[in-house]
Specification:
The chain has 6 helices and no strands. It has 206 residues and is mostly helical. It has 2 domains: 147 residues, no CATH class; 32 residues. Helix 3 packs antiparallel against helix 4. The radius of gyration is 25 Å and the shape is elongated. The N terminus is likely disordered.
C-alpha cells in the first residue's frame, strides 16, 4: 500500500532502519537527549509563570501534587537511557497521552481566556485600565512549544528502539540495519564455533 511505502529521498518518510543521525548530524541518542533537555527547560519556565496565569483565569493556583506529578512525568523521559525497548515503548505511549491531554487543556485555556477578555474588555475601558497579557502569552507559547516537541521525540525514540533491538545504544552513528547485520555476523560466527566444537567432541560417535 502507498500509505506504508517508504521514501528514501524524504527524511521523515524514510525507512527508520536507515536513519543514522538526527537533523543536525548528531547521534540519535544525542538528539533525543537534546529534545528532552529542551522539554525540561520549557517546563521550568512554565512552572514560573503558570501560577500567575491560573490566578488570573480561575482565581486559584495549581496544587503542588499536580506540579510534582508533572515533574515526575518529565523525569520519566530520562529513562530513554535505560536501553530497554519496552521502556521506550512506554515513553512513546506517555508522550502520546501528554500530547492528547495537554492539547485539550490548551484549547480549554484559550477558550476561557478569550471569553474573559470579551467580558472584561468593556469594564477595563470604563476604568481606563490596560490589562497586561504578557505572562499569559508567554505561558501559552512555552506550553505550545512543549506540546509540539512530542512529535520529534516520539519519532527519534522509535528510531532508537530499533537500534536497541539490534544491540545498539544510539550513541554511534550506525543505522539499525547495520547493527542487525553486525549482530547476525556475530551469531553466525558463534554458531560455526559451536558446530566445530560439537563435531570435534562427538565425531567418534558418528
Amino acid at each position: 500500500m502507498m500509505l506504508f511505502k517508504s521514501y528514501p529521498s524524504k527524511y521523515l518518510l524514510r525507512d527508520r532502519n536507515e536513519i543514522r543521525t538526527g537533523p543536525f548530524g548528531f547521534s540519535i541518542m544525542t538528539t533525543c537527549l537534546a529534545i528532552i533537555v529542551t522539554v525540561t527547560i520549557l517546563y521550568a519556565g512554565i512552572w514560573q509563570v503558570e501560577s500567575e496565569v491560573l490566578m488570573y483565569l480561575f482565581g486559584f493556583k495549581l496544587p503542588l501534587a499536580f506540579k510534582f506529578t508533572s515533574v515526575g512525568s518529565t523525569a520519566f523521559l530520562y529513562l530513554v537511557f535505560s536501553n530497554s525497548v519496552g521502556m521506550m515503548y512506554m515513553l512513546i505511549i506517555s508522550c502520546m497521552n501528554y500530547f492528547i491531554i495537554h492539547t485539550i487543556l490548551f484549547g480549554f485555556l484559550m477558550q476561557i481566556y478569550f471569553s474573559n477578555e470579551e467580558l472584561l474588555k468593556g469594564l477595563f475601558s470604563l476604568i481606563y485600565h490596560e490589562q497586561d497579557y504578557t505572562m499569559f502569552y508567554l505561558f501559552m507559547s512555552l506550553s505550545l512549544l512543549r506540546i509540539l516537541l512530542c512529535f520529534p521525540l516520539i519519532y527519534y525514540i522509535l528510531v532508537l528502539s530499533l537500534m536497541c533491538i539490534n544491540g545498539g545504544r544510539g550513541w554511534d552513528k550506525k543505522a539499525a540495519h547495520e547493527l542487525e547485520q553486525e549482530h547476525i555476523g556475530e551469531q553466525v560466527k558463534t554458531l560455526h564455533e559451536r558446530l566445530a566444537f560439537l563435531e570435534k567432541k562427538y565425531d567418534h560417535v558418528l
